[in-house]
Every structure is written in C-alpha cells, then in structure tokens.
Amino acid sequence: MEDLDTLVLRTALAWHVQRLPVILVTVARTWGSSPRPPGSLMAINERGETVGSVSGGCIEDDLIHRVRDEGVQAVCAGDRPVVLRYGISADQAHRFGLPCGGTVELVLEPVSAHSRLDELLLACEQRRSIQRTLDLQTGHAALQAGQFDGLPRLDEHRLITYLGPQARIIVIGASDLSRYLCQFALSLGFEVIICDPREEYRASWQLPGVMVSEEMPDDLILRLQPDSRTAIIALTHDPKLDDLALIDALQSQAFYVGAIGSRRNSEQRRERLRTHFDIAEPALQALHGPAGLYIASKTPVEIALSIMAEIVAVKNGVSQPLTTPVILGKAMHENPLLAVLQAETT
C-alpha cells in the first residue's frame, strides 16, 4: 500500500497523462489549529474527482465547486499557481469548518510537464529525499536532493516542499503476530517487508501488499541498507535469526530497531550482543526491547498494536517520557509505588 503523498502524486500524474486538467493543492502554511499539517497534498481534476485532503472536507468542497464551475485555468489564472487563504475571518472559519482561530494557506498548481511529477515519483520509489522548488510566476518546478521532513517554505516567488521515501518496516519472522503487525503497518501507509528463511513458517503466510523474503535476516538487512525512514522489528524468538538481524540493524540508519521477548530475555539479548558481538553501548540503548508501548496487551493483535504504536511514536518524534515502554509499564503495573515515583519525576 502506498502512502498518501505518493498516491496523490501518482493519481495526479495519471490524470494528466489522460489529458484531464488537474490541480495539485499543497498546504503551504497554517496558523492555529489546522486539520492537516503543512506539506499535505491533494489533487483535483476538472470533473471534481479528488485524492488526498487539505482539511476536514469543507475546504475541499469549495475547491471542487470552483474547479467544476470555473475550470482549472480560471481557478489557477492560466498556467500559473495561485495562493489561497482560508479561515482568516470568524465567518470563514465557521463556513469552512476550521477549528477556532485556524487559518490555512494553500498553493494551487496546474499540473503540466513542467511539474515534473514523473521524476518526483521515481525519486520517491528509489528512496531518495527531494527538495522541490515551484516557481509561482512560471509554474516550473526544480528538483534537487534534500531532507525528507523539512517544513514547506512559501514567499511571493516560490514554494519549497520536501518529499521522500515511504516509511518502511522490515519484520523478521512470519507468525500470527507478524500478520497483525503487517496489517496495522499497511493501514498506516508503510511499505512492508517480512523476512523468514524457515519454509514451514512461510508456507501458509500470505498477505496482499507485503513483500516476503526467504533470505537470512542479516543478509536482507545488509542488502537493503536501511535508511532513516525504516523500522526493523524482530519477532521470531530465535536468537539465530533475531540476533543476526539486530547486529546489522543497530548499525544502520533505521529510526527504530526492536525485538519482542520478556524483560529477562531482552536483557540476555543485550548481554549477548554486548559480549559476543561487541555492539557499542549507545546502540544497545537504542534497541527497543521488549518492543512496544505498555497497554497490558495479552493477545497477538494487542501486542501488534502495542509495537506499532511505539514505532509510530518514534517515527513522529515523540520522546520517551511521554510514552510508557513495555519494560517500564510492566514494572509499574507490578509495583504501584514505582508508578508514583515515575509521575513525580516527569
């Protein structure tokens, strides 16, 4: 399953190839509360068909009516992008369903060959981060290497946005827990790869949209060279598979590396990695084990939810004091006094 940005770009390009006039809408800036963050994308064709979103729905309705009634060229003043602002007045905020005090500024861009959406999509598929600079006077876009998570920048001459690879998760081990975890990951827009060299585990394991690898986990990690948009989770309970994957994963750029197991098993794993494989202490401290946030999970689907919640929290930059990892949550559940002490120190 593609993430939403990629889906918007691919759909906009497909409409353009079909010779349907298309507008690419980008949330450039927001003030106050806003339903969608800066950088969010939406595409509208001349028939009023849409993909993506820029608000809770009311702004989309207004844009669709404009495009249907006036046409793409009229809305965009010919072939040039235009800037629209919603929510400046209390009346607009009420009319367009914006939160109290919310204001959103949009750039509407008529899609053309100068938009270079095909090149942008190719870069994302190749897991390259791109800075896209749109000239507001000409509608021409320039592409260059850039960071993935930069905030858009808008002035009277140009809009600069940043796009990059889809979030990806590599799951070590094919099991019921893996199946639930992969389903959650797919619904959250992750690219999902599952790795298990054991034929008996792979035989009955199928899930549409998931790439299945028969390689040894460490070979897969070395081949893929995980980037900063990749999470890796080991679920086999087999040190011969999990440990080898973790050795290379902890030395990669992956934003999250985790493994399931009890607190005792997790400490034994760290000791093995420290003693036998000389993994540095900072890397061991970065290992999430037992993986997941504490939600008193019991069943495989609850454990999968717990792990996926932690992965999303790390991806979104939520610091650990605001979350409760499994190892701390279980300890506080067993010792209520520890929970009181933890609350007093945070």
From TrEMBL:
<feature type="domain" description="XdhC- CoxI">
    <location>
        <begin position="17"/>
        <end position="87"/>
    </location>
</feature>
<dbReference type="Pfam" id="PF02625">
    <property type="entry name" value="XdhC_CoxI"/>
</dbReference>
<feature type="domain" description="XdhC Rossmann">
    <location>
        <begin position="169"/>
        <end position="311"/>
    </location>
</feature>
<dbReference type="InterPro" id="IPR027051">
    <property type="entry name" value="XdhC_Rossmann_dom"/>
</dbReference>
<dbReference type="InterPro" id="IPR052698">
    <property type="entry name" value="MoCofactor_Util/Proc"/>
</dbReference>
<dbReference type="Pfam" id="PF13478">
    <property type="entry name" value="XdhC_C"/>
</dbReference>
<dbReference type="InterPro" id="IPR003777">
    <property type="entry name" value="XdhC_CoxI"/>
</dbReference>
<protein>
    <submittedName>
        <fullName>XdhC family protein</fullName>
    </submittedName>
</protein>
